[in-house]
C-alpha cells in the first residue's frame, strides 16, 4: 500500500471525534432555551439603541420587575405544558387568590397570615379540581380550564360585589401581619444602583427549583414521559394521572404565590384583573422553547421568554411607540418561536447533521 493510500485511510479516532462533535451539535441545538436566548439578546440590544431612556438602572429594574410578573406564573405553566396540558384559568386564578386573602381577612377580621393560608387552600383546591376533572372525564384540559376561567372570572366579580358592594377589595395595609407579608412578597432592595423587587429574586429561585425538579429527580422524568406519550408512560409504571394532577396544583400554588404579591404590593385588588394573562404565560413558555404538544421544554426557557416580553412591553414605552404594538409583537414572537422550535426539533433529531 502506497504512502498516499495510507494517508487517505480513515482514522477511527477522527471518526469518533466527528461523531462526538455531531452529537454535541445536536444536543446544543436541541436545547429549548437556544432560540429564546438569541432573541432576548437581540431584542435587548435593539431597545437599548433606539430607546436611550431604557439604559438607566431604574428603567432596567422596571424591565426585570415586569418580566418577573410574567415569569413566576410562566414557570408553573411551562411545567404543566411539558406534562402535555394547558391551564387557561391561570390568569384569573391569581386574582382569585388575592381577592380571597383580602376579603376573608378584612371581612372576618382575621390575621392576614390566616387569610393567606386559607387562600392557599383555595388555590390548591382549584388546581386539584382542574386536574381531577381532567383525569376523570378525559375532557381536554383546554376545555376544562376554559370552563374554570369563566367560572372564576364570574365569581371574582360577583362575590366581590356582593361582599364589599364594589368591584375592588378594601385596603388591608393596616391589618395585622401586613408588613411581614409585604416583606416576603413585595419588598425591594438596592444593588449597584438597581432597585430590585423581591419578585425578581423569587422568580430566579423558583426557576432553579423547577429546573432541579425536571432534570435531577424521578418526578422530572415522569413529567417528560407523561407529556411525551402518556400511554407509553403508563405502560412502564409512571403514575401519569397523579403527575398531571400535581402539575395543575403547581399552577394553583404559584397563582397563590403571585396573588400574595399583588395584594401586598397594591393593598387592594380589582376583581376584574387577570383577564388575558393566561395567554401571556403560555406564550412565554412557548417562546422559551416549550412545545405545545408536550414532552419538551425548560423553565429556563420560560424565564427567558418572560424576559423577552418584559423587555418588549417596557421597551415600546421607553421608545415612545404606541403600547398597542406590544400585542402584535407578542403574537409575532409566538408564531416565530413555534416555527423555530419545530425546525430545531426536526434538525436535532436527524440521524446525521448535514
Characterise the protein shown here.
The chain has 354 residues and is mainly alpha-helical. The protein has one domain (33-346): Orthogonal Bundle (ABC transporter involved in vitamin B12 uptake, BtuC). Helix content is 74%, strand content 2%. The protein has 15 helices and 2 strands. It is globular. It starts with a helix and ends in a 6-residue tail after the last helix.
Give keywords.
354 residues; mainly alpha; ABC transporter involved in vitamin B12 uptake, BtuC; two-stranded antiparallel ribbon; 2 strands; disordered N terminus
In short:
This protein is mostly helical and 354 residues long. Helices cover 74% and strands 2% of the residues. It has 15 helices and two strands.
Average pLDDT rating: 88
Spans of at least 5 consecutive residues with low confidence: 1-9
Assign an overall shape: globular
Stated plainly, the CATH topology is called: ABC transporter involved in vitamin B12 uptake, BtuC
Classified by CATH, the class is Mainly Alpha
Main β-sheet, spatial strand arrangement = 1-2
Task: Explain the layout of strands and helices.
Blueprint: H1 3-8, H2 12-29, H3 33-50, H4 57-82, H5 90-107, H6 112-137, H7 141-164, H8 178-185, E1 188-191, E2 194-197, H9 198-216, H10 218-228, H11 230-235, H12 240-266, H13 277-287, H14 299-318, H15 325-348
Antiparallel strand pairs: 1-2
